[in-house]
Specification:
transmembrane; mainly alpha; single chain; membrane; 555 residues; 6-stranded mixed beta sheet
């Protein structure tokens, strides 16, 4: 980015970054993920409706993840897109705080560019997840660390509050716990003022005592929260303690590298390396703060256990990793001249980014592999006048491609409309049978938190068949997005087909398009003299399903 950026232009980059996030929040919305976000939306709504929400489920103790979004839905209606306004505010607040700590227009511009262009950070911008809130609390910890000498009392209060609320949002904030100790060691060596640490540790102890006292009074156990975290662990495909030792060895050695590559964090990881190394050479306080925090988070995600009873490294869900973008983006911004122009660092970064491309190609991800190689080529080979423009385009373009892909894949407004209609038609004698993930999300999808549904999951239908209480007719709602997000749901489709065949149900009405399939089944008597073929089946195909473009592309 040109060094000629003046004071007015740096505000322009901040405004552009904020505008980009706002526009993305408005137009990049692609619906819920039918997962934990639904739980947080419901908890927030229940909290503000005055219901008891705190239980031994460790999700309920993450009140920092749902209080703000719940207030929005309580005031303006039960709408998941509106609820995610909290995520937008968290992102904007984080970006503003970190931008304020940076020393010059160039570093500020690069920070905004790299912070606001990560596809996963943007994907969860329109969702309600604790990780979005944790971006803010991570930024606040680092912001407070920067001002610890100028304003020791206020910085200590801010940092302790950020750690406390961050922990009440999601436990991964503890990965930053070594940071205050590292800063204390740094200030001790430099014989700098250490009043900040007196205030910080004192306020943190007070908060901890209050927190433990609350659980002692409410649940008669000061360690209730920690026990609920431990009890919340279960064996799954994403745990490691129950797997072969080779799986564990892969997880704590090279597997995280593949995750960074496959989940598109590789660029940030590699470009942050010069900033981390240079921090220990130039020993500037700002650089060291973000270098230390990067190291804490990397080691935490790589090695730290999620359990108190056994060693189980955290599953590296790309959603969890978005808090890395705060320190990584600053490391990148502070040493942009190095990786852009320095002979060694430019080649170092270019070659390692290209290496990530070859890993992606080896995993048969041609698009991602090609992208990494293109980025490395632009960084290494483009002339200086057009290098910045090329890299900006390569960073921003995937964000538009990603949101277009997701919106087409899910077509959430269409799902919402048709699912709401199906729910409204359902009644006790004509229930709706659908995927478990849709049934659990029904309140969010329909926007009606209180309505009791006449809907069944697969287990409910099987139970009625077992008790010989099956309805005379019912409708089955299939959302084809399950093939992408929940491939195991193919068992639901197969089991429904088996039940209808074995219990003399015939389809009398079918609506199908690229995204959904709704089938109205009616039961017939096996002693009926009429064959199933005499029932009129009304099939309503979606016109695009048979368009020439669909035929040409094999859809």
């Amino acid at each position: 980015m040109p060094n000629q950026l003046n004071q007015n232009q740096q505000y322009l980059t901040l405004g552009a970054g904020g505008f980009f996030l706002v526009v993305y929040w408005i137009f990049g919305y692609d619906g819920i993920t039918f997962s934990d976000d639904v739980s947080y939306l419901e908890l927030g709504q229940r909290f503000w409706m005055g219901e008891e929400v705190l239980t031994n489920d460790h999700f309920t103790s993450r009140w920092g993840a749902y209080i703000f979004s719940g207030l929005i839905t309580f005031l303006f209606g039960y709408n998941d897109h509106l609820a995610s306004l909290s995520s937008l505010i968290y992102y904007l607040g984080a970006m503003l705080m970190i931008w304020k700590t940076l020393p010059n227009p160039t570093s500020r511009g690069f920070f905004v560019l790299f912070f606001a262009s990560n596809v996963y950070l943007l994907h969860f911008l329109t969702k309600v997840y604790p990780d979005a809130a944790l971006v803010f609390w991570t930024a606040l910890i680092l912001f407070a660390a920067f001002y610890r000498h100028q304003k020791p009392l206020w910085s200590a209060l801010l940092m302790s509050a950020a750690f406390f609320v961050g922990f009440c949002t999601k436990e991964t904030i503890v990965f930053l716990a070594p940071l205050p100790l590292m800063l204390w060691w740094l200030d001790f060596r430099n014989k700098a003022q250490r009043l900040f640490y007196v205030y910080f540790f004192s306020s943190l102890v007070i908060l901890a005592i209050g927190y433990l006292t609350y659980f002692s009074l409410k649940f008669e156990d000061p360690l209730f929260r920690f026990k609920s975290i431990q009890d919340g662990h279960y064996i799954s495909p994403y745990t490691y303690f129950d797997k072969d030792w080779k799986v564990m060895l892969q997880r704590i050695t090279y597997s995280p590298v593949f995750t960074f590559v496959e989940r598109a964090y590789w660029l940030w990881f590699i470009l942050a390396v010069p900033g981390i190394f240079r921090a220990f050479k130039n020993k500037r306080d700002l650089s060291l703060i973000f270098a230390f925090s990067s190291i804490c988070l990397i080691l935490g995600f790589w090695f730290m256990s999620t359990s108190f009873s056994y060693y189980n490294p955290i599953y590296l869900n790309p959603r969890h990793l978005i808090i890395l973008l705060v320190p990584f983006s600053v490391n990148i911004a502070l040493e942009s001249k190095r990786w852009m122009d320095n002979f060694f660092w430019n080649r170092f970064c270019s070659l390692w980014i290209a290496f990530g491309g070859f890993i992606a190609l080896g995993a048969l991800d041609w698009k991602l592999g090609t992208y990494y190689i293109l980025f490395a080529g632009a960084l290494l080979l483009c002339p200086k006048p057009i290098k910045t423009v090329s890299l900006v385009i390569l960073l921003i373009l995937p964000t538009f491609i990603s949101v277009g892909y997701q919106k087409h894949l899910k077509n959430y407004p269409h799902l919402k409309e048709e699912f709401t209609k199906a729910m409204e038609k359902s009644r006790s004698s004509f229930p709706l049978v659908t995927h478990d993930f849709l049934l659990k999300s029904r309140g969010v999808i329909t926007g009606n938190y209180n309505k009791a549904p006449h809907a069944l999951a697969l287990d409910g239908l099987k139970e009625k068949v077992r008790l010989d209480q099956q309805p005379e007719e019912f409708q089955v709602f299939i959302y084809k997005y399950y093939k992408h997000a929940y491939p195991e749901e193919v068992g639901f489709v197969n089991e429904v087909n088996r039940i209808t065949e074995n219990n003399h149900y015939v389809p009398v009405n079918i609506f199908e398009d690229k995204w959904i399939k709704i089938t109205h089944f009616k039961r017939v008597s096996p002693l009926s003299p009429f064959s199933n073929s005499e029932y009129s089946i009304n099939i309503e195909p979606y016109s695009e399903l048979f368009s020439w473009s669909s035929i040409d592309t094999g859809q």
